[in-house]
Amino acid sequence: PDAETIHDIWSQGSRDLVDETVKEKSPKALELEAKVKPLIERGGPFTKEERQLLNEWVTESLK
Description:
By secondary structure, this protein is mainly alpha-helical.
């Protein structure tokens, strides 16, 4: 899923779904997650840099 999808899931309060999708987290994914959590909680619109960070986090989390 892309960052927008993750954000939609998140904004619907389905954090469990996100957590379930991402069971085994690499240290890099956890590090990125710490950076994206505040962005997700704040919500969009996201800057290009923020979107890149979200996409990187999703990619890393799904490895």
